[in-house]
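Long-time lurker. I teach an intro course on protein structure, and each term I like to show students one example going from raw sequence to a predicted 3D structure in token notation. This year I'd like something fresh instead of my usual example. Would anyone be willing to generate the tokens for the chain below so I can use it in lecture? Attribution to the forum is fine with me.
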Amino acid sequence: MPRSRPGALRAERGTYEGRRAPAWARELPPLDRLSPAASAEAHWALAHEGAADLLSLLVAYRAFLDRPGDRLRPVASECPACPGCARDDVAVVRDELADAYRALPPGARVALGGVLARLDAEFRRRTLPDPDPRAAHWADWSGNPYAWWHRRLYDDG
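-- Reply from a regular --
Happy to contribute to a lecture. Here you go:
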């Protein structure tokens, strides 16, 4: 009897259905406010994808929201081409969180979605929308609009 190809086996059972994260992923510390199972799935999926460290992204997003004051203004990065410096802009951090969210399996995606929903509500409450609807920074070079977190008033200084 011929052997089934690995791709055919994966297609039968689905991408994540019936699969459990490996032991090394379950031994890592849980991510920010995610259950141990969802954290293990996130560690496993993001290690496969080669994506950014989810914990450092959540810490950077929370650090921005934990700043004192009623109203916050994001600060544009001085060197947006440098991957480390680009994260000085909270909108870039939120973009990377959105990319990581899309790369997660369904269980971890739901858990992270709940965390991001609470953080996004706080971000919307404490920042002001940009009143200029024709601002150039609302769309990329091809005309595709940026996500809502790019359309907030930035600090000029």
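Some talking points for your students: The mean pLDDT is 80. Helices lie at 6-13, 23-27, 36-49, 54-65, 83-86, 90-103, 106-126.
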